[in-house]
């Protein structure tokens, strides 16, 4: 159905401009829904996957966390044929060390609120991939074997730690800050994993000791290399991140 599914949100929905992001997995556009500025994301996630994500966002909103919340269709559905419409959040990216410390506080709150959260359907955690070869967008068989060994060694250092929901991609583009709140957008990569994946932040804003920061930074570099890896090996971001994962 594609973008035709927007009609389920009303006859007056207007698509605005395409937004960057999504790593080629989704199309994201601004839309006008019932007189309000919103964001629509069209992708190929399963209904079970989208149900997990939209339930998470509604629960976090209920807990007072500023997140993009799903806007229901006219008949109450939160997604239709891979399309989700969410509230638009104003704000700018973190720029200073103090800004990133606020981001770290928001991430720690997310982690505290979601301990024991059910696994996202079809997803594997970083520690699962120490032995498993695939999970959602990850296909370790497509990566150089020596690189897989390094990634698995980085993830093995996380085994045995408490898990929770991680945002999965807390970079500058996915954060909207104002004077009184920190909001995280683009929860497409959120899943249950070890919180360290979210905490290798600029300026070591999460206040990790040297060893803990090294573990977190290596695990995150390995994760981003695996998630973004192109079978042709031409994705330069993935190649760069894999090069940062050292032998342990």
TrEMBL record:
It comes from the Bacteria. Pfam families: APH. Transmembrane segments: none annotated. SUPFAM superfamilies: Protein kinase-like (PK-like). Residues 21-212 form the Aminoglycoside phosphotransferase domain. This is Aminoglycoside phosphotransferase domain-containing protein. The lineage of its organism: Bacteria, Bacillati, Actinomycetota, Actinomycetes, Propionibacteriales.
């Amino acid at each position: 159905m594609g973008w035709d599914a927007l009609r389920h949100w009303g006859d007056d929905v207007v698509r605005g401009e395409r937004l960057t992001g999504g790593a080629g997995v989704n199309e994201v556009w601004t839309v006008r829904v019932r007189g309000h500025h919103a964001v629509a994301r069209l992708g190929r996630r399963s209904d079970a996957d989208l149900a997990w994500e939209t339930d998470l966002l509604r629960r976090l909103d209920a807990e007072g966390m500023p997140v993009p919340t799903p806007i229901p269709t006219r008949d109450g559905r939160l997604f239709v044929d891979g399309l989700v419409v969410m509230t638009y959040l104003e704000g700018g990216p973190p720029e200073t060390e103090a800004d990133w410390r606020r981001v770290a506080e928001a991430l720690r709150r997310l982690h505290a609120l979601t301990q024991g959260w059910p696994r996202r359907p079809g997803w594997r955690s970083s520690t699962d991939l120490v032995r498993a070869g695939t999970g959602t967008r990850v296909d370790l068989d497509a990566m150089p074997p020596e690189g897989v060994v390094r990634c698995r060694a980085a993830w093995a250092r996380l085994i045995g730690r408490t898990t929770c929901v991680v945002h999965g991609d807390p970079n500058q583009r996915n954060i909207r800050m104002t004077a009184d709140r920190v909001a995280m957008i683009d929860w497409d990569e959120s899943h249950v994993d070890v919180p360290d994946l979210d905490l290798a932040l600029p300026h070591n804003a999460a206040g990790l000791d040297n060893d803990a920061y090294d573990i977190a930074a290596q695990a995150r570099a390995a994760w981003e290399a695996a998630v973004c890896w192109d079978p042709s090996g031409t994705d330069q971001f993935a190649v760069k991140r894999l090069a940062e994962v050292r032998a342990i």
